[in-house]
Amino acid sequence: MTEVSRGLGTGRASVGAVLDFAWDAGEFTASDVMASTSLTRSTAIDAIETLVGADMLHELPNARAAGSYRSGRPARRFALSPDLGVVVGIDAGDTHLAVTVADPLDRTLVHHRVEISSDQSADERRGTILERLRAALEEAGILRDRVLALCAGVAAPVNRDGVSPPHPDGFWERTNPGLADALRDWAPVVEIKNDAQLAAIAEGAVGAAIGCRDYVALLASERFGGGVVVDGHVLHGAHGGVGESIVFDHIVGVGSAFGLRYAVQDQVRAAVENGEITVDSALGHLAGRRHIDPRLVLTLAASGDADAVRITDRVGATLARVVGVLGSMYDPSRVIVCGAVAESIEPVLAAARRILPDELHLPAPEILASTLGAEVVSVGAIATARRAARERAVPRLAEQRLSELA
Fold first, then answer.
1. What is the pLDDT of residues 339-383, one digit of tens each?
2. Which residues lie closer than 8 Å to 274 by C-beta, 6 or more apart?
3. Cα separation of 265 and 70, whole Å?
4. How many C-beta neighbours within 10 Å does residue 124 have?
């Protein structure tokens, strides 16, 4: 029995089977339903008519009216209703906030991304998230009661109730400022997830881990954090802390949970200070800036700049140590480096690949750069919200509408 069928109850299993089929089918006929399910023609037609009457499916113009059918009686064609509602994904990072409004299938309606201050209090951060959520729905022309499911990703461990444990410095309480309570009434299904776990979901759905059952999505730009998938399952833990990065504070050769952006910056400044890189070189000029854009360093390395290559080799050694720890703990076949830095990270990955086999006894995992860029968490949040809509929110909506028709 499908998840949708369970949501509708066993008494409406045939209706649930057709509704579940409709999610992936696009346009379909009763014959298509019969070919993909165990339903007879009469049962399939009855279930389709029931769902059309409940506005869960809609009938399309027949093939003759569409100009694509020339002889005989055209088959009736159906599709999932376009008016079921929307899903929302939120990427609430430490210094950025992205809100995405999408339909339940494949279309993005609105995507907003803004930089926010890491100095915001928990109350200010919560207010900013709710304000940007309202603005995104308003721009999409969507009323709040049409949100089917919402998923928010935060830079903190999150338990199954959407609550983060206390952090010694209050960081987790600020990055997840009571979002489970604040968002509870915004949709029938609301999920709060760790951002690295959402990155793993994104990579498995549309990224570099499609078809892979054992992998780690390593968020690596600001801070290290791993979304871990073993045997096809995203690992969670009692407090949502699987893949939490504090372990890297204690690993020789890494020494910090801060990500590759800071590793590149620190290596450049250290090389200038100890005279390895002259202040009048390309990298020397960068060292005088308050913040060093790692993409500039990585681009120089890709072009063959000797100083930049030296830096990326050292950062690659750090990454190899990080991947070696993940490889020893979880035995993945792939580690996918995610985040904004991934688009230019290849020089670092090349160095890490050379070093990695010496970092662990197991076969070294493949190290890949994500193609999903800075939006990887948003992609995972929308994928999670769509799944929640399909398996939980829409079956509830169908049950409600069918009960009203009874």
1. 988 999 999 999 999 999 999 999 999 999 999 999 999 999 999
2. none
3. 67
4. 14
Report DSSP letters for 193-235, one per residue: EEHHHHHHHHHHHHSTTTT-SSEEEEE-SSB-EEEEEETTEE-
Q: How many CB atoms lie within 10 A of CB 122?
A: 14
- What is the distance between the alpha carbons of residues 278 and 264, in angstroms, rounded to a whole number? 17
For 310-346, the pLDDT digits (tens) are: 999 999 999 999 999 999 999 999 999 999 889 999 9
Q: What is the Cα–Cα distance from 329 to 175, expressed in whole angstroms?
A: 27
Return the number of other C-beta atoms located less than 10 Å from residue 290's C-beta.
4
What length is written for the chain?
A: 406
pTM score of the predicted model: 0.91
Q: Is 79 helix (H, G, I), strand (E, B) or coil?
A: strand
- Residues 6 or more apart from 74 whose CB is under 8 A from it? 62, 63, 64
Residue 249: phi, psi to the nearest 5?
-65, -20
Alpha-carbon Rg for the chain, nearest whole angstrom, is 25
Q: Are strands 215-219 and 334-338 parallel, antiparallel or unpaired?
A: parallel
158 neighbors 192 (Cβ within 8 angstroms): yes
Cα 144 to Cα 118, 150, 253, 379: the distances in Å are: 28, 11, 49, 21
Report in angstroms the alpha-carbon separations of 101 from 104, 289, 296, 314: 10, 37, 33, 41
Question: Number of C-alpha atoms within 13 angstroms, CB side, residue 255?
Answer: 8
Per the DSSP assignment, residues forming a β-bridge with 228 are 216
Q: Which tokens hold the place of 235?
A: 């690992």
